[in-house]
Amino acid sequence: MRHARIHGVGGYRPERVVTNEEIIQFIDSSDEWIRQRSGIATRRWAREDETVIDMAEAASRQAMERAGVAPDQIGVVIMATVSHPFQTPAAAPQLAHRMGIPSPAAFDISAACAGYCHAVSLANDMVRVGTADYVLVVGVEKLSDFTDKHDRGSAFIFGDGAGAAVIGVSDFPGIGPTLWGSLGDQADVITQRESWTDLRPTMEDAGRTEAVPWPAFVMQGQTVFRWAVFSMAPVALETVKAAGITPDDLDAFVPHQANMRITDAMIKALKLPEHVPVARDIAETGNTSAASIPLAMSRMLDEGEAPSGGLALQIGFGAGLVYAAQVVVMP
Ligand SMILES: CC(C)(COP(=O)(O)OP(=O)(O)OC[C@H]1O[C@@H](n2cnc3c(N)ncnc32)[C@H](O)[C@@H]1OP(=O)(O)O)[C@@H](O)C(=O)NCCC(=O)NCCS
Q1: Fewer Cβ close by (within 10 Å): the C or N end of the chain?
Q2: Of 166, 245, 241, 244, residue with least CA distance to 5
Q3: How far is the CA of 37 from the centre of ligand 1 (A)?
Q4: Is 150 a catalytic residue?
Q5: What range(s) does the Beta-ketoacyl-[acyl-carrier-protein] synthase III N-terminal domain occupy (predicted)?
Q6: Residues 113, 117, 118, 259: which is the catalytic one?
């Protein structure tokens, strides 16, 4: 079987910086509480007319340029997103068209904050067995469209952005075994509030006067917190073992940017050596779900915080509940 690795990563953050002051206009909260409980100082929100496809395009252009891979070398495009506002068609074929990738297999996957790590695993398998030489993987969200700005439990958490990676053939193994799984009995822990079919009567009833419900994403914060800390740290440790290394060998830890306190608790549970740099992109970018890991890795590489060629442990976890983790060689 062939080897695969990440050839390049790229990121895109929308221009508009949204402060905690702006968020607390709509909820009973404070800048201090949000910083202390989530580590978030600012997040980015996309323009009203800016779509997940626009953001994905910007991140993909950067990733492909850095990878030195041309559009006609890409055989598959996978977009991980839960905020493309169309049930169908998927966003990936439109992204591929814009990127000038000639007729690739292109599809979206729905694995929430673990979507990027799921897509990396699929891409790795495809490249290794020869289904494709290069796969474009994108994690992208416009969560501002699905945030209830009056919901105290989630209004301050979410942000918008895109991260992309080009995964392709390699002389050495650059993506370790993926550990992944799901807990479908916990579906209500993070969820869209109403289904599209629940909304149908409202949409059909033009005379309705009360507020129109909107399928915002809501969560049981404490349950997510406990699950992430107590269950995801052991998964992270198993992933490192499965890669045949120890935490001491890591050059970066890039967890999903869910909440700074979750990251801190995971570091403790993992007994992560102090020399390993940890992604803390959430402070300025918020929780961008599927986009958070590639955005954070891209930033660490750009700022020289993590070395190109070094080993990074990445772990995504979120609505489903679902999770996926792997050790990768950074491009
Ligand atoms: C959402 C989250 C920050 C809430 O923090 P928490 O410490 O669990 O907060 P709690 O719900 O226990 O509430 C603690 C106190 O803060 C208050 N509080 C809750 N939300 C608040 C807000 N937005 N602003 C100010 N105070 C708030 C509560 O009323 C409570 O007050 P009390 O102690 O006087 O009763 C936290 O649970 C979290 O981040 N969970 C994980 C969420 C996440 O990562 N989601 C994405 C997963 S991919």
Answers
A1: N
A2: 166
A3: 7
A4: no
A5: 107-182
A6: 113
Predicted confidence (pLDDT) per residue in 47-65, tens digit? 999 999 999 999 999 999 9
Buried b vs exposed e over 32-64: b needs ≥16 C-beta within 10 Å?
Answer: eebeebbbbbbbbbbeeebbbbbbbbbbbebbb
Residue 207 has pLDDT above 80, yes or no: no
The model's pTM is: 0.94
Name residues contacting ligand 1 (CB within 6 A).
Answer: 27, 29, 33, 37-38, 113, 152-153, 156-157, 190, 219, 221-222, 224-225, 258-259, 262, 287, 318
Calculate how far, in angstroms, residue 153's C-alpha sits from the geometric centre of ligand 1: 6
Residues 6+ positions from 16 with CB-CB distance below 8 Å: 44, 45, 46, 47
The string of DSSP letters for 151-163 reads: -TTTTTTB-EEEE
**Under 8 Å between Cβ of 167 and 121:** no
N- to C-terminal Cα separation, the chain:
21
Q: Which residues of the chain are in CATH 3.40.47.10 domains?
A: 3-170, 179-185+217-329
Atom of ligand 1 at shortest distance to CA of 259?
A: 44
Distance, CA of 313 to CA of 308 (rounded, Å): 14
* Segment 163-194, tens digit of pLDDT: 999 999 999 999 999 999 999 999 999 999 88
Is the domain spanning 3-170 CATH 3.40.50.300? The answer is: no
Distance 285 CA to ligand 1 centre (A): 19
Cβ burial 182-219 (10 Å sphere, 16+ → b, else e): eeeebeebbbeeeeeeeeeeeeeeeeeeeeeeebbbbb
- Fold classification of 179-185+217-329 (topology level): Peroxisomal Thiolase; Chain A, domain 1 (3.40.47)
286 conformational bin, left if phi > 0, alpha if psi -120 to 50, beta if neither: left
Find, among 110, 162, 173, 200, the residue nearest to 299 by Cα: 162
**Ligand 1: centre distance to CA 38 (Å):** 8
